[in-house]
Design a protein that fits this description.
about 230 residues, alpha+beta, seven-stranded mixed sheet, four-stranded antiparallel sheet, 4 helices, about 30% strand
């Protein structure tokens, strides 16, 4: 683990904040961007306290006190849904933020980003597993409902109550369909169809979207196809 600590918070009476991360999974410039954002928030009057939580993208982070007197962070470990297990740092928060932002920007403008939260609910097809083709359909969020529907592409009746379960979004990703993670920031009206080989197709309000050439997703698809050859 590596860490970056803010340097401008103490002049405003706020303990400095230490951002721990895995440099093999997170871009250091993303960590520095978030550290600068925290400093700007503190300069504007925000105060961070032990025990508080914050949302970063779709994830949550909890503020803790570190032995050196700075404040640090804990985040979900992305391994256990019930009970939710925390681990030190912001690796998952920042990695997912980058992944979801880059994926959406491959087909849509960044201003339509619509992050749900790990604590919102979704509907999941009871036949869905993490190895089969699937599709994601996002309706308009209402209250604690993220609007997301996770469904398999198998030939069975999706029109019965027994075909669906309601669960929280974190559980749907960790326990059922981790491959849906990159697409969670797509806005209401989105339909995403993902084949068994992982190649996605995108629709917004029933209009097909094209993956932008040389975008993050275009390059990822190209690498996937080459590795399969």
């Amino acid at each position: 683990m590596k860490s970056i600590t803010t340097t401008k918070c103490s002049v405003h009476g706020q303990p400095e904040l230490t951002l721990a991360f895995d440099p093999e999974k997170v871009l250091e410039r993303d960590v520095r961007w978030f550290a600068a954002s925290l400093e700007e928030n503190v300069a504007s009057g925000t105060r961070y306290q032990v025990g508080e939580s914050m949302q970063l993208g779709w994830m949550w982070a909890w503020i803790i006190k570190l032995p050196d007197g700075t404040l640090g962070f804990e985040e979900p470990d992305m391994q256990s849904a019930v009970p939710l297990v925390r681990l030190p740092g912001l690796t998952n928060n920042l990695r997912h933020l980058r992944l979801q932002k880059d994926t959406l920007e491959s087909v849509l403008p960044v201003n339509v980003l619509a992050f749900p939260t790990v604590q919102q609910t979704c509907l999941v097809c009871t036949k869905l597993d993490d190895s089969s083709a699937f599709f994601l359909d996002r309706r308009q969020p209402q209250g604690n409902d993220s609007g997301w529907i996770f469904a398999c592409q198998a030939d069975h009746d999706h029109n019965t109550a027994q075909s669906w379960k309601k669960t929280w979004l974190y559980s749907a990703i960790v326990e059922t369909c981790r491959r849906a993670l990159p697409y969670l920031a797509f806005p209401p009206g989105s339909l995403i169809s993902v084949a068994e080989d992982g190649i996605p197709q995108f629709f917004l309000n029933e209009k097909k979207l094209e993956v932008r050439k040389r975008s993050y997703l275009d390059l990822a698809i190209e690498r996937s196809r080459h590795s399969a050859d």
